[in-house]
Design brief:
four-stranded antiparallel sheet; 572 residues; alpha+beta
């Protein structure tokens, strides 16, 4: 079927979707600027296309808001370069099919002109009546206040914007793997967790409409779903391709970040390696060992005094005592200027006694290793956080991430916790990572599983069932990171499997004090299931490091240990 249409110079032929679907991109009607689905009139000589309903619109109509004169259909309001303003819904800049009165300069775009006074909408159980006069009201579909023509229910208080009433049931966004489906309330299967919009990270209220992907278990506010992501800027692409950007997550609890940091700042000749050094953190000379030991006990139990991680070659060791120090930790500068504390320099310090520890102000973990500390503000960073790069690449995101201290508190995309200091994406502003998630290792070996656990990121379309943490036995939110073993189908919260505030504290040293006959061992907590009670001050402690006697119930809390041994030399 062929027709001549006043809006186009070539004849138009009626085609179905199969005949013209040669491209993957969305095709828009040149009359109403909405997606073409089903039959349409197309031009064989150019790309002009019209919905069948748009091509068959009457050339002249009478409209109840302008009863004085009939309105004539125009292909565009060509009397204005910037389009017209619809006198019904007040939309500005309309440049396509318009019903127009040349005498009164009255315009109605075809959406408002063709609206039925009453519709049946799948999102509501009563008929909805069209309200032509634009009103400012709170919409029951999108949950926002906006001035718009509307549809209103005369049976109940339901009232929605015209733009919401016209939303398609399914949309396809250029940067999503699956189409998004319109839901008129949050499905009950998702009520267990708080659902956040993937664009703005604000709560998706269960009673309002939203777009969602059932496979990925993602939700979007109506207005957010309609926003196309900005393409990568040239600067962002250059940063992403920069080979100097370090890739996270790191394979394991390694010292790669420290080693890389030392290489970047080192001015010394790499061939001029000191075989013996004196380090201010230790009283004896240290000798270099640059071959990895095959001794399993050393690999598993000997920790570096700088970073508190398992020792690996090359490292320095003491001939006289049980002291080990990675070569990269030994080469750390004595003073640094850090972007998160630009006001003052941070100076390197180390524990006074073997049972001394302090907390890092960035990752909030305790460490018995080296710290960089501000003498003015007492701001402290352990060596791992101090050596983190200013920008990184991460497997969980496409764009580079920059370290920044933000003014407002934001949610971490990995764990959903709130934080101010994070790695953020400057390109899309949709992805932020807290330091604790950046420090998560790619794989982790745990006693509860025979296989290495892999750090996994959403969407988990390959795993439609719920995730339950094997440790705490609680459900795992499918929109956040987890550790998973595919062979055993076991899952773990990242916090349950990995986050231990004392994991960088070195335990096991012994101390002999004058008021007790037996040696005291530095341990994580008392062997008893009950809180530890200090034999000196009487205060109870639970899950704190203590100096404990292996033979009897005598134990010292951390503070009392300091007071007692202040005049004694440290013992390893």
């Amino acid at each position: 079927m062929e027709m001549e249409h006043f809006s186009h110079e070539h004849p138009l032929k009626l085609t179905d979707e199969a005949q013209r679907n040669k491209r993957d991109e969305e095709i828009l009607c040149d009359g109403c600027r909405e997606s073409i689905i089903g039959s349409a009139y197309t031009c064989s000589e150019c790309e002009y296309i019209l919905h069948k309903k748009c091509a068959e619109l009457p050339k002249e109509i009478n409209h109840p808001m302008h009863i004085e004169h009939p309105l004539t259909l125009l292909s565009s309001p060509d009397y204005s370069l910037f389009g017209c303003t619809c006198n019904v819904c007040k939309i500005y800049g309309w440049k396509w099919f318009t019903y127009h009165c040349s005498i009164c300069k009255f315009d109605v775009h075809i959406h408002c002109a063709s609206k039925k006074s009453e519709i049946e909408h799948v999102g509501h159980h009563h008929p909805l009546t069209f309200v032509e006069r634009s009103s400012l009201f709170f919409c029951d579909a999108c949950g926002t206040e906006q001035k718009d023509v509307s549809y209103r229910c005369t049976t109940c208080p339901f009232w929605i914007h015209n733009t919401c009433a016209r939303l398609p049931i399914t949309i396809t966004r250029s940067y999503d793997d699956h189409p998004l489906v319109l839901a008129f309330s949050l499905p009950t299967t998702y009520h267990k967790f708080e659902q956040l919009c993937r664009i703005c990270h604000m709560i998706v209220r269960p009673s309002y409409w939203s777009y969602h992907c059932a496979l990925c278990r993602y939700f979007f506010h109506l207005k957010c779903a309609m926003v196309e992501k900005e393409p990568l800027t040239l600067r962002a692409v250059e940063e992403y391709l920069d080979s100097n950007l370090m890739n996270f997550p790191l394979p394991d609890k390694s010292v790669d970040a420290i080693s890389r940091y030392v290489k970047l700042i080192s001015l010394e000749d790499v061939n001029d390696i000191a075989r013996e050094i004196f380090h201010p953190s230790h009283k004896h000379p240290l000798i270099l060992l640059d071959v990895q030991s095959d001794d399993a006990e050393m690999i598993n139990t000997k920790l570096c005094r700088g970073c508190s991680r398992p020792i690996s070659a090359p490292f320095y060791t003491c001939r006289d005592c049980n002291f080990f120090l990675h070569k990269c930790c030994a080469e750390l500068p004595r003073e640094i200027q850090h972007p998160l504390h630009a006001e003052h320099p941070l100076r390197q310090s180390w524990p006074k006694y073997f049972f001394s520890y302090t907390n890092c102000d960035l990752c909030k973990k305790f460490t018995s290793g080296f710290v960089f500390r501000c003498s003015t503000c007492n701001f402290r960073l352990d060596v791992h956080c101090a050596c983190l790069p200013k920008a990184i690449k991460h497997d969980a995101h496409d764009h580079p991430l920059k370290l920044e201290a933000q003014i407002s508190i934001n949610r971490c995309s990995g764990c959903n916790n709130f934080t101010r200091t994070m790695y953020g994406c400057a390109t899309c502003s949709e992805f932020n990572l807290a330091i604790c998630c950046v420090n998560l290792s790619r794989t982790f070996k745990h006693e509860w599983d025979h296989h290495p656990l892999t750090l996994s990121y959403p969407p988990f379309s390959y795993h439609p069932d719920e995730f339950i943490c094997e440790i705490c036995e609680e459900d795992i939110h499918p929109n956040y990171w987890l550790y998973h073993c595919r062979q055993c189908d076991q899952s773990f919260h990242t916090n349950c499997i990995h986050f231990d505030r004392y994991s960088d504290v070195k335990f096991g040293g012994t101390l002999q004090v004058q008021n007790h006959p037996h040696p005291l061992v530095y341990v994580r907590k008392s062997k008893s299931k009950f809180p530890s009670i200090c034999s000196q001050c009487g205060l109870s402690r639970y899950d704190w490091p203590v100096l404990e006697c292996a033979r009897c119930n005598f134990q010292l809390c951390h503070n009392c240990g300091y007071r007692i041994v202040e005049s004694l030399p440290s013992t390893s």
